[in-house]
Amino acid sequence: MGKIRRALISVSNKKGVIDFAKELSSLGVEILSTGGTAKSLKESGMSVRDVSDYTGFPEMLEGRLKTLHPKIHGGILARRKNPRDMDEIKMHEIEPIDMVVVNLYPFEETISKPDVTFSEAIENIDIGGPTMLRSASKNFEDVVVVVDPDDYPKIIEEMKNSDGDLSYKIRLELAKKVFRHTSRYDTIIADYLAVVTKEEKQLPETLTMTFKRVSPLRYGENPHQVAAYYKENSPGISLSDVKILQGKEMSFNNYLDTHSALMLVLEFEDTACAIIKHNNPCGVALGKTIREAYTKAAKTDPVSAFGGVIAFNREVDGGAAEEITKLFVEVIIAPRFSKDALDIFSKKQNIRLLEMPDMKKQLDGWDIKRVAGGLLLQDWDTKKVAIRGLEAVTKRNPTEEELQGLSFAWKVCKHVKSNAIVYAFKDRTAGIGIGQTSRVYSARTGAVNALEPLKGSVVASDGFFPFRDGIDELHKVGVTAIVQPGGAMHDKEVIAAADEHNMAMIITGVRHFRH
Questions:
Q1: Of 37, 144, 201, 284, which residue is 20 to 30 A from 476 by alpha carbon distance?
Q2: Whether 437 contacts 305, CB under 8 Å
Q3: How far apart are the C-alpha atoms of 484 and 437, rounded to whole Å?
């Protein structure tokens, strides 16, 4: 380590670079630069040495070839404490480069443009930049490497306080940041190429993913666990796109519940409300208005709705806000909030209001579950089944009202932890049996928790009924129609039980386990 005397600056993101370069120059640092960066620095009145003048080799191939030269990489890679290295670069008239300030071609920003062409994306793959960054990071004890404009101020401050030098600790931190940055950059390119070549649903032999930290969280699921929220590089629907209009900082569990609420409410085209508690629905309903949808959803289980997370697929108006504020809730997510609603919620500042205008985006990427020593990868469960298009397997066909209820309950059931039983009417849940080890137990739990008579209700089950006992339990409380995946060894016995009780049954052939 030693005083920084020469810096190579070549950046696409020019945020703060002129002020940074001027500070370096005032500290006696010679500035080498290329292309647009050199032009910007010169126009600001600075003295800048062009890389092409230094190497004696012009920029060529329309800018593709600029810094891939021994006089650049020799000056970066030479170990200052290694006499042989220093003799060799002196022999070849290579000058040491003590700082590399580089950020890469804006590939991520380029591919995010809706009309980007493949050739345009390819031209924004940086070659020389990553090479210089890796070289400087490898030799971090002798070369300061800077990839993030936000680091400029602390670097200048440290240099001013240390006679133009930087500590080992800062040099190492900057080098680590570079490898995280270039790793993410390469992963974004690989993911893009997979998508444009139609490989997005192929399970890769080697999985590389990149996420950028959005914010640290106070703690994880429990106060003794550290946590943060990371954003995936994805054009799909994302909680990182929401605008937080008011409320306390989002917690780990808030994010989990908000995701579940959002995914559930997006199942519906009609005006809908979903209330989530502990990552499970405790009330879902449709309505002519947002207020009506919320009121019906909350009636399913008002005790559990206390402290819950609520999602809407329509603008929240003042009428709905008045009703919601009668109950303590943690988070509300919706496409929009009216001015009247915001005025009402402003009196409850602890309620987190999340605005997500674009709820039409699709889920992208993979659904991932961590296990000891690895992870399980699958695509998202976005399978939809048109219940109306299926024929009953029982002697009796569902009535029109039962069909509406079965379609509604099936959409909800997909978002309930297995084993799942959802009691419903045509526009609302009536009781939800969640996460029991037996489907019969889920049937009983859902019925016990129901606050209204279940006579005339319908049921959706996320998995098949292994025996007729589940059907008998549903008959006891007045269920008249069932939708379930089927596929059990005893399907005939189960169907016969439904016929015995004059129930209608639809088998989907699709299972929706959620563990």
A1: 284
A2: no
A3: 17
Query: How far apart (Å, rounded) are the C-alpha atoms in residues 419 and 412?
Result: 13
DSSP conformational letter for 337: B
**Residue 278 annotated among the catalytic residues of the structure:** yes
Longest Cα separation, the chain? 97
Active-site choice (42, 278, 299, 361): 278
DSSP 8-state symbol, 363: P
Query: Is-catalytic flag, 259?
Result: no
Measure the CA–CA gap between 126 and 66, rounded to whole angstroms.
11
Opening angle at CA 427, ends 424 and 428, nearest 5? 50
Contact 510, 383 (CB under 8 A): yes
pLDDT, tens only, 180-214? 888 888 888 887 777 666 555 567 777 777 788 89
For the stretch 99-121, pLDDT in tens is: 999 888 778 778 777 788 888 88
pTM for the predicted model, two decimal places: 0.79
Q: How far is CA 81 from CA 127, 208, 309, 449, in A?
A: 29, 37, 60, 74
Given the residues 3, 22, 42, 138, the one annotated as active site: 138
